[in-house]
Amino acid sequence: MAETENNKILEVKNLRTYFYTDDGVVKAVDGVSFDLKKGETLGIVGETGCGKSVTALSILRLIPEPMGKIVEGEIIFDGKDLLKLGQKELQNFRGNRISMIFQDPMTSLNPVYTVGNQVMESLVVHRKLSKEEARRGSLKLLEMVGIPEPKRRFASYPHEFSGGMRQRVMIAMAIANSPSVLIADEPTTALDVTIQAQILELMDELKSKTNSSIIIITHDLGVVAKYANRVMVMYAGKPIEFSNVDNIFYKPMHPYTIGLMKSITRLDEKNRKKLKPIEGLPPSLIDLPKGCIFRIRCKYAINQCKKEYPPLVEIEKDHRVSCYRAKEFMDGILERFGN
Amino acid sequence: MENNILLEVKNLKKYFNLRSGFLSQRFAGSVKAVDDISFFIRRGETFGLVGETGCGKTTVARVILRLVPQTGGEAIYNKVNIFKLTSREMLKIRREIQVIFQDPYASLSPRMTVGDIINEPFEIHKIGDKRKRIKKVKELLRVVGLNPEHIHRYPHEFSSGQRQRVGVARALALTPKLLLCDEPVSALDVSVQAQILNLLTDLQKEFNLTYLFIAHDLSVVKHVSDRIGVMYLGKLFEVANSEDLYKKPLHPYTMGLLSAIPIPDPELERKRRRIVLEGDVPSPINPPSGCSFHQRCPNAQDICSKEEPELKNYSKNENEHLAACFFAGKPI
Questions:
Q1: ipTM of the complex in this document
Q2: Domain limits for position B284
Q3: Which of A131, B58, B97, B100 is least enclosed, having the fewest CB within 10 Å?
Q4: Within a domain: B313
Q5: What is the pLDDT of residues B112-135, one digit of tens each?
C-alpha cells in the first residue's frame, strides 16, 4: 500500500469550482477527486460543459477571478496543497513542474513575439538561464518536438506556422523545464487527423523519455482508448466513473458511460449500424436536479435516484462508479450493450 | 452509364483568383480549390466526401448549388447540366437540391422564429396558403423530433443539436431529392451527434433521399455512406464503397488517414500498427508538382514528382474502386 501511495504524483480531493453569473451559480466542477500516478496517462472525458477543462484550469489556478472561484478542495502536488500557495510560490510550479498545453494553438501563442522568444521565456524565468544558454536550450527543444530547421524557424512568428507546427511549439514550451505533470486540454481538437496523430505520438514519445505523467482532456474516445491508462468520465461537473481504460470500454457500469460507448461511430464497424444515443440533453449547471444528475436521461433510473446523489464508490478494485445500480451491471443482472 | 444516377459531376474545377496588394487588382495566381474531379451519386444512396481542412470538399457543394460559379466542368442532375440553367430554371432545381450546413449557430437567423425559418422556403417558392404552411411546418418539426408547439421559439432557445434539427427541417420543407450535408455533425457532442446521424438515416429511408455527405471525420462518413470519395488538395484520390475503402484502401493517403484515426477499443489499438504521415498538407497556392501527395508519401518514386497520376479503376467492376496513384495498392 505504501508503495502505491508514493506512486502518486498529483492528488485532487473534492474540488469544487463555481462561477458566479447573473443567472445564478454555475457549478462547473462539483466534487472532483482523482489521483495521477507517475508515468501514467490519465484521460478525462466528457461532453461540452461537463467541467473537464475547468478541472484542468483549477489545478493550475488559472480560473478567472472574481467570476470564477475554487470554493473547496485540495490539490496535493509534491506534498503541498497548491490551493494554499501564494502567487509567488505558485509560479515555481506553474509552467515548471506542472505545465499545460491548450486546445487552440492559434490563440494561445503571442502573435507579436517570435516563436523562439516564447520558448526561451520559460527557460529564462524558471531556470534563470542566460540569454545565450536559453537560446541553445530552446533550439534543442524545437528540434525535439520536430520543427524542421529550428535555427531558421527560431526567428519566425506564430502566423508563419501551420496549426500542427504551432501545437509543436506549445509542446516545446510546456516541456521546457521537464515538468512532472503535463496537462493537455484537447490538444488536437483544432487539428486535422493526420496532424493529430503526429502530435499525440510526439506527446507519448516525450512522456516515456522524460517519465512524466500526462492528463489528457478530450471528448474523443478513440484518443482515450489509444493513449490513456486510466480514465475519468465526467458529467455535469461530477466524476461519474473512474477506472482503467479496459474497464471503461469493456465493463462500463455507469449508464452515461454505457450510453457514450453506444453513441460513437467506429471505423471497424459495418456501416449504418444503428447508433443508440442517449436521449435528451445534459442539464443546466445552474439548476441541477435533485438526486442523480443523470437520472432524467437514464432509462435505468429508480426511485432512489431521485432522492440522493449516488456517491462515487469502489465497486470492484480500482473501479469507482457513482450509480446505485452499478452492482447490477457488474453482476450481469442489467444488460449493458443489449438494448 | 447506369441510368439510376441522380447527380454526376464531371471534371469539375473551381479556381479562386488571388490578387496582390490591397487596392491593385493585379492577378497573382490562383488557388485550385477543386481541380478536375468527377464522381456520381446513385439515387437513394449516400456518397461521402472526406478530406482534411482546405481539401476543397465544401467548395464542391457550393459549386453544385451554384453559390459560387464553376471554373470548368459539368454537374448533371437528372440529365440536366445545372451550370447551363437560367436562374428561373435553377430556382426549380433548388427545390430538389437542399443543403444542411455545419454550424447550427450561424446558419439560422437569430431574428426569426423557427416557424418562420422553416416556412421561408414555402414563401420563396409560393407554395400553399398560410394555414397549410403552418400545418406543414408543425409536421416538419415533428418529423425531425422537435415539439411542434415550439414553432414560435427563437434559435437561441434551442441547444445545438436541436438547432441542427431545425436546419434539417428547413432542408426537408420542399421535399427535396438530393440533400447536400456539409459537416452536419462536426459541431456536436458525441451523444447528440449520434441522434442527428440516426435522424438522417431514418429520413433517408422515409423520404427516399439521396445524400452527398461532406465531413472530415472518416469514421462518421464511413458510418453513413455507401460510397466514399477521398479528397486531397482539390483532387479526388480514391473512390470506393465504404467497406472496400476501409478494408483494402489503394491510395497511400487513404491508408495514412485510416491509420491516423484511433478506434475506441483499447485492446485493438494496442495491436494496431500505426502509420503516421509526416509533414503538413502543402499550400494550395503553390502545390507540389506531379502528385500533390508525393512529399508526404512513403511510397513516392521519381515519377510521382514529375507526372500526375490519373484516377483509374482497379476493380473488375466498372467504376467500383478508383484510385489516383502510380503504385495503387502498394502497402505503406
A1: 0.86
A2: 249-332
A3: A131
A4: yes
A5: 999 999 999 999 999 999 999 999
